[in-house]
Amino acid sequence: MLQPWKYLRGVDRGQFLLSLAGLHTAGAAMRMNALEGLLGVTRSSERMPVLFLGHGNPMNAIEENTFTAGFRAMAREIPRPQAILCVSAHWETRGTWVTAMERPRTIHDFSGFPKALYEVQYPAPGSPALAAETKDLLSDTSVGLDQRWGLDHGAWSVVKHLYPEADVPVVQLSLDRDMSAEQHYALARRLAPLRDKGVLVLGSGNLVHNLRLVAWDRLEETGYAYDWAQEARERMNTLILKGDHRALIDHRAQGPAFQLAIPTPEHYLPLMYALALKRNDEHAALFNDQAVAGSITMTSVVIRDA
Questions:
Q1: For residue range 218-233, what is the model confidence (pLDDT) as tens digits?
Q2: Exposed, middle or buried, 86 (CB in 10 Å: 0-12/13-18/19+)?
Q3: pLDDT band with cut points at 50, 70 and 90 for residue 8
Q4: What integer pLDDT is reported at residue 220 of this predicted model?
Q5: pLDDT at 128 over 70
Q6: In 10 A of CB 10, how many CB atoms?
Q7: Residue of 51, 97, 58 whose CA lies nearest to 75
Q8: Contact, 50 vs 302, CB < 8 A?
Q9: Partners of 302 in the beta sheet?
Q10: What is d(CA 10, CA 23) in angstroms, rounded to the nearest whole number?
Q11: What is the spatial distance between Cα 1 and Cα 20, in angstroms, rounded to a whole number?
Q12: Domains along the chain?
């Protein structure tokens, strides 16, 4: 039997780089023009949707199941992006960082899985231009340009199903572990201009994610959920579809089921990056909306034009 869902989170990156203060308007415009040239987009580009993907077990990277089929189906429904900005549950840092290398490495940040999983490489290019533009958009936050991280499994295990040819540039934005859900939501709102530049903003985590209470004897039984997990799932889904972002941000006040569903916030917080980018003329829809192993849900969200 596989070792139980052993994830390694992103490590502390040490003292993070301070971003430049007081960016000049002309300089920001030059960087935006450089980004447009690199991505081949203009200011009239079609607005990209936003995704939150429940990534679940790392084995989903190499297995064929209803969830991986759902990822592929969604890729066929949405416009092809010029680049992806991914916020993964598995890159937690002190401060905020964005990957800025030309060729991000594939990180196998888990243990106890079959050799075939460790042999997977996802050689998507990076985008230093997108990293610089992301840093500019978040100019009131200290953002470091990272050259060491790469793509963790929260990113590549799902993106490889969306774009199996690894021909779409991927940049990761870290989760500052010292920020609250409200602060992540506020930060994410400043990323909105990227959607009009052909960039797909993608959060990767799990809405219900309690590894300590996994039903190991029912790992193969898709749809099985403890009562509290089902309650949390239904309540979360209702709030997402209603657009009640305030309640979702204030998840600690939503009762015992939410507290069991979110014992630590890192798998939940990527949802904030999807919700924050929803515009008034858009709607949210769910897919892959099933529970696994009692205490995990694979629920995924797409936000796009109504």
A1: 877 789 999 999 999 9
A2: buried
A3: very low
A4: 77
A5: yes
A6: 22
A7: 51
A8: yes
A9: 51, 285
A10: 29
A11: 50
A12: 24-305 (3.40.830.10)
